[in-house]
């Protein structure tokens, strides 16, 4: 399966965090497949930053 990210994410989010997000997406897809539910391919993640700490 092809995976796409926005230019902003590619340029501003550390690679390690991008990798962790893809792992979350894969886990969710596996759960949906196992439960015989349709797979949702649109994922939105929201982050907050406070004093240089990402939440």
What would you say this structure looks like, in words?
This protein is 47% helix and 7% strand. With 55 residues, it is mostly helical. The protein has one domain (7-54). It has helices spanning 7-12, 15-34; strands at residues 49-50, 53-54. A two-stranded antiparallel sheet has the order 1-2. The model has no long low-confidence stretch (mean pLDDT 84). It has two helices and two strands, in the order ααββ.
How is this fold's topology laid out?
Elements: H1 7-12, H2 15-34, E1 49-50, E2 53-54
Pfam families: DUF960
InterPro entries: DUF960
Observed structural traits:
elongated, 47% helix, mainly alpha, two-stranded antiparallel ribbon, 55 residues, 7% strand
Structure summary:
The protein has two helices and two strands.
What does the average pLDDT come to? 84
Report Rg: 13 Å
Strand content: 5-15%
Distance between the termini: 29 Å
> How many structural units, i.e. domains?
1
Number of strands: 2
- The ordered H/E elements are HHEE
- Net shape: elongated
* Helicity level: 40-55%
Largest sheet: 2 strands, antiparallel
**Unreliable residue runs:** none
Which structural class do you get from the secondary structure elements? Answer: mainly alpha
Number of helical stretches of at least 4 residues? 2
Strand order of the largest sheet: 1-2
